[in-house]
Amino acid sequence: xxxxxxxxxxxxxxxxxxxxxxxxxxxxxxxxxxxxxxxxxxxxxxxxxxxxxxxxxxxxxxxxxxxxxxxxxxxxxxxxxxxxxxxxxxxxxxxxxxxxxxxxxxxxxxxxxxxxxxxxxxxxxxxxxxxxxxxxxxxxxxxxxxxxxxxxxxxxxxxxxxxxxxxxxxxxxxxxxxxxxxxxxxxxxxxxxxxxxxxxxxxxxxxxxxxx
Length: 212
Ligand SMILES: Nc1nc2c(ncn2[C@@H]2O[C@H](COP(=O)(O)OP(=O)(O)O)[C@@H](O)[C@H]2O)c(=O)[nH]1
Ligand SMILES: [Mg+2]
What we know:
The chain is of the alpha/beta class. It is 31% helix and 19% strand. Strand 6, helix 4 and strand 7 form a beta-alpha-beta unit. Magnesium ion binds next to helix 1.
């Protein structure tokens, strides 16, 4: 994956978008798994809805939440009848009742363990914050599963370019990631949109990582 922007057609041109529905519980309804799926994960308020909307150039695909922790279902969106973007529930929001918090982990884990069409995960982290224990647990879980993972560092417009570069190196090193796995992103300036779109296309095109 190249970091430099290449001239040419933009990656992942969106011709058709459709909301397929939501999954509320492990083993509950979910759309038929026929298209490759890319899932998006991160703590509440990290900027996941904003990133999804920026990725598909659509202002209200995923609702930008005024109430963090409110979206507790897994939402499925078909793109171009070719792939499905999977919006996992935001986790780890302190003000969400313990009972609610106990629900997201089994839901997310069962999705990740059983989705036959899953091709990769985009894990979101706020560029300004150190990864939380929940973030680290999620990344460890993904590493154990062996699912290809891209990390986007969100809200980079809130820091100077110099500070962003420092934070990108710090977070990449502290999580033991490869630099090509990490994409700085801003829903405000759209920085990183095309790089993320290319990464998503590559994940979709790659053969499945699941063993037999
Ligand atoms: N400055 C800035 N604010 C952002 C960015 N992405 C999200 N936000 C803000 O962060 C808050 C949470 O965003 P949202 O997309 O709802 O996060 P979610 O809970 O992870 O879906 C909202 O107030 C957004 O406007 C970004 O790239 N830059
Ligand atoms: Mg959201």
